[in-house]
Amino acid sequence: MVRFREVVGIRMRWEEHGAGTPVILVHGIPTSPALWRRVLPHLTGARSLAWEMIGYGDSIAEGAGRNISVAAQAEYLLAWMEALGIRRAVLAGHDLGGGVVQIAAVREPARCAGLLLTNSIGYDSWPVPSVKLLRALGPLVRHLPSPVFKRGLLAMLMRRGHDNPAVGRESLELHARPYQKRGGAAAFIRQIKSLDVRDTERVAAELPRLRDIPSRVVWGAADQFQRLHYGERFARDLGAPLRAIAGGKHFTPEDHPEPIAEALNALVASAAAQNAT
What we know:
globular; Rossmann fold
């Protein structure tokens, strides 16, 4: 079910399913809460809330004139949790969303009942070279007609990021729609211009302090955007088990929902046990 709430003057959007321990799922670029559609049916005992980053998906218009950096998204996320009365939740993030939940957990660790990272940005792993190039070419790319943007740039990202071609084609159609409705290539360029690697570099040294929080790392081992050694580094710093998916590429929640759901269900069980205690 799609829900909306005005928080700090922003109309925030999320998709909510189920009941139980709150699990907050945060997507990356160029996706939306629909990224988690194949994970949600496998979650048990969870109130799943797939939050939409400001300036992304159907919230693209809300990003106009606002700070939509990864660090700012963490502040928006925490404000939204406060507005909904969510004191603690399992936080899960993919790609940019992984950076968002890292920062949120470092800033307010008491709110984090569990942490899952899957093919997440972190440390100095981003922006990736292709995104740096697009940022440099921004004045040209932003004027691409919507069909060219979809069939060219977005299709290239999906092809490189999916090891399941059928899911990749479905995902292209799904994630292209908000861009086609709300600014196209110009919206994408606005998103990538907001990216600043210092957002995750500033919290990198703090990650080992999260070791008291149950964590899991699930990684597509063949990811060309976020390499496996970053997943290994997260696992070491967080004291978390790492599940490397052989042949898996970047968009793990879409291509490999079962191992991600399995990790989340373990975190939900841990959080529920803590609450009972």
